[in-house]
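Protein in question quoted in full.
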Amino acid sequence: MAVMRNGVLGVALAAALMVGAGGSAGAVGAEADLAHHGHVSLWDGRLGVWMVSENLGPADLPQATVRIAFSEPMAGGQELPSACLWSSDRVVSCRTGELRARVGVGELALDLRTAGRPDELTVEIATAWRDGAEDRNPVNDRHRVLVLATGDPYVF
C-alpha cells in the first residue's frame, strides 16, 4: 500500500511509474546512460542514503525515477524529500529531475529510522523509469549494498 503524503507529487510520480512500463513521448527512442553512485550508512536504528544520479548520455533525459528498497522495514510516519514518496514500508521512489547528457546531476539524501534496530540490512538501488529512453548499460544504475550497523559508509 503506497503512502502518498505529497498529493500532487504522489499522483505525478505514480503516473510516471505507470507510464514508464509502456514508454512515454518524452524520450522514446533516445539513449541515456543513467548512473547512481553514493553511500549508505546504518547506525543506532538510523539509515542514511546519499546518492548522485547522473546521465552519461548521449541524449538528455527530462525525468527519471529511482527506486530504493530496504530488506528491513522503515519506521512509519517519516517525511521524505519533496521529490520522493513511500511505495511501502520497505521502498522509496524518487524523481531525479532533468538529467542533461554528461552534465546533468541529481542529488538525493535520505535520513530514515528503521522499524527495529537491525545489525545489518540490504539496500537495493535501481532506475525504475527513464521516460522511455533506452539504457544499454544498466549495470551502473543497479546496486545491491549490504550495510552493517557500524556507522561506516558503504559505497556503491
